Amino acid sequence: MSKLDELIQELCPNGVKYIRLGDIGQVCMCKRIMKSQTSSEGDVPFYKIGTFGGKPNAFISNELYEEYKRLYSYPKKGEILISAAGTVGRTVVYNGEPAYFQDSNIVWLSNDESKVLNTFLHYCYEGQPWRISTGGTIARIYNENILNAKVPVPPLEVQREIVHILDCFTLLTAELTAELTARKKQYNYYRDALLSFDNKVKKVKLKDIAVDIYRGAGIRREEVTETGIPCVRYGEIYTTYNTWFDACVSHTKLEYVSNPKYFEHGDILFAITGESVEDIAKSVAYIGNEKCLAGGDIVVLKHNQEPRYLAHVLSTYEARQQKSKGKIKSKVVHSSVPAIEEIEIPLPSMEVQTRYADVLDNFEKICNDLDIGLPAEIEVRKKQYEYYRDVLLTFAECGETILDRQTDRQ
């Protein structure tokens, strides 16, 4: 019998109560901050719903922060911030460092930890099927939705043991993710160093090796079909494909495209619209054998080089820096055919290109392939964690967890 089983047997053998969050605390939020009170640089980060859990792009003065923190609601260290709009239900544990949060869109429950630990609540929130209102322009959870949500409240000793178990799962996943991140940084460094050639290889502009270069034709989301002509839409270059690919995930019908633009084996595809300067003009090589359609905001480069080598060298830091120079900034970031034509890359012989491409392919596979190595293990650990979290936070009327029932049946 595990320690958790013993605690349940001793402290709550007849079950635990499910209590409304409104019975253990109140929903709080920070005082409203006006746009005129923020700046792009400053003393204290101001997190809006779009930057919640990420990097802030707005700041407030330290004087305003101290005043509002003193006069109005402000989270205590360890309390759980919840996104109440957009992608609702995301959580961030407030770490106590100076920061301010957008009112109504980022909230927290100010609860009495003599009843429920914040660390326990955090895991409850992760598995909480929040009641979401979608009547407006964006999804939202209102205060009443949070207050009416129910969570199991076992004795504090049981809560601590459940938190300990789940913390171990979380720590293991974090360690594996950190190792994978370090491996990817190592790969990026190795790739960039390998492809610099110590300036001993002549550099050429893409326009000098292009047999042809042209833009694709628009394919709308509703024109994507299960079968038909293989195609690539520009967003898929960012989200679906890595350095090279040999099969398209999307298809369309020829009648949907009034002026079809094709790409074939060996062509390089550039996404010339994006959300950030750093990622603009991400490129990918196609090494499949079907003739495919290029969607709008894609530039196709035809050439007579090793396509995998071009894909790797166009992913280096030096190439990405050049890609960012071709931007035209508005609500989104754009590049263009002339900007892409001016990108310079080192171009060794075909034999060297192939050898380098093989080496980098093998290294990249270790880093990114979900079927081998760390990424696969991380996926397994995440699924395992989610399973045990749901099991440990689901109490039957007898006071046992669902896991106990499943064990009894075996």
How would you describe what is shown here?
By secondary structure, the protein is an alpha+beta fold. 37% of the residues lie in helices and 19% in strands. It has 13 helices and 24 strands. The chain has helices at residues 3-11, 62-71, 118-126, 143-148, 156-194, 206-209, 234-239, 307-313, 317-324, 337-341, 350-368, 373-392, 402-409, and strands spanning 17-20, 25-29, 44-47, 59-60, 80-83, 91-93, 100-101, 106-111, 150-153, 203-205, 212-215, 224-225, 229-232, 244-245, 250-252, 262-263, 268-271, 273-274, 283-286, 292-294, 298-302, 328-329, 333-334, 344-346. The protein has a five-stranded mixed sheet. Strand 22 and strand 23 form a beta hairpin. Helix 8 (307-313) crosses helix 11 (350-368).
Largest sheet: 5 strands, mixed
Which strand-content bin applies to the residues?
15-25%
State mean pLDDT (0 to 100 scale): 89
Radius of gyration, in Å, reads: 27 Å
Q: List how many beta strands DSSP finds.
A: 24
What global shape is seen? elongated
What percent of residues adopt helix (DSSP H or I)?
A: 25-40%
Estimated structural class: alpha+beta
How is the largest sheet built, in terms of strand order?
11-21-17-19-14
Compute the separation of the termini in Å.
Answer: 16 Å
* Unreliable stretches covering 5 or more consecutive residues: 397-403, 405-410
Total DSSP helices: 13
A few lines on this structure:
With 410 residues, the chain is of the alpha+beta class. It has 13 helices and 24 strands.
